[in-house]
Amino acid sequence: MSVARSVRVRTPGKINVSLKVGPLRPDGYHSVASVYLAVSLFEEVTATELPADEIRLTLSDPEGRLPEAGIPLDGDNLAARAARAVASRAGRDRAGVHLHITKRVPVAGGMGGGSADAAAALVACNELWNAGLGPADLADLAAGLGADVPFALLGGAAAGLGVGDRLTPVPAPQQLHWVLVPAAYGLSTPQVYAAVDRLRDGADVAEPMEADPTVLAALADGNTAALAGVLGNDLQAAALELAPGLRSVLEAGIRLGALAGMVSGSGPTLAFLAAGEAAASALAAALRAEGYDALAAYGPAEGAVVLPAAETTAPQTYRK
């Protein structure tokens, strides 16, 4: 029995510690000015060679958080599109791969889990096929896949302009501790942006030209208390309108000791900033005691990393 080579890559989820959203553009998008922070909820993608021109996807869900509808495992999955992009750029159009995705980032939760899968697939397939693509090539392919994919490659902390894909790494030397509370449902990002436009009701909104300097300063200084006072998300009001039950969770987090709380990206995951690691652990335990699914995490976390992976004899069958 032949042994199939495999490559395993880990990529982080993210939160937006600041998110400014501009008006609706003629192309249907919104310009943003965001400060991204990669956090220690990691997706893993294991890429294993297949002998034929086939991209096969499977999932495992160790945390038991996949929605009932599941995740599409066909060619529309962002990880499959990433594999095709690497094959095309490298001139390996008939290359085959089995991508197994281990999900740990909440699905449709505003934390970029699907983008992290795509970033991991880019790196894994590049390594698996010895494609020879450099960081600039991978970043270019990532930008073509989605606004959050380049940051999943990069990790750390970064300011994002345009639709979030024009990234500038920013200093964040101090480890920050968070408690993340995912919801049992997702929110559609296009619906959240549409709600933003409706709530603004034609108000004159300026194009965001730079990331919030007070947020950048607090990150650079490692000043947790200062950061708590300047967290902001222009999508939060829309997310709360679409999912009003999130308000009670935000109130609970503050009551139980969080320095600040906010909707992460387009939601519905909530991010609570804690004073330190012990405070985050205590807050997560207190929220779980009240019936919430709460996860302690830290950031910044590193971007895409190739992990040790044992060789496999054939693609396995995984629990969905």
UniProtKB/TrEMBL annotation:
HAMAP family: IspE. This is 4-diphosphocytidyl-2-C-methyl-D-erythritol kinase. Residues 218-292 form the GHMP kinase C-terminal domain. Belongs to the GHMP kinase family. IspE subfamily. PANTHER family: 4-DIPHOSPHOCYTIDYL-2-C-METHYL-D-ERYTHRITOL KINASE, CHLOROPLASTIC (PTHR43527). It holds the Pfam family GHMP_kinases_C. It catalyses: 4-CDP-2-C-methyl-D-erythritol + ATP = 4-CDP-2-C-methyl-D-erythritol 2-phosphate + ADP + H(+).
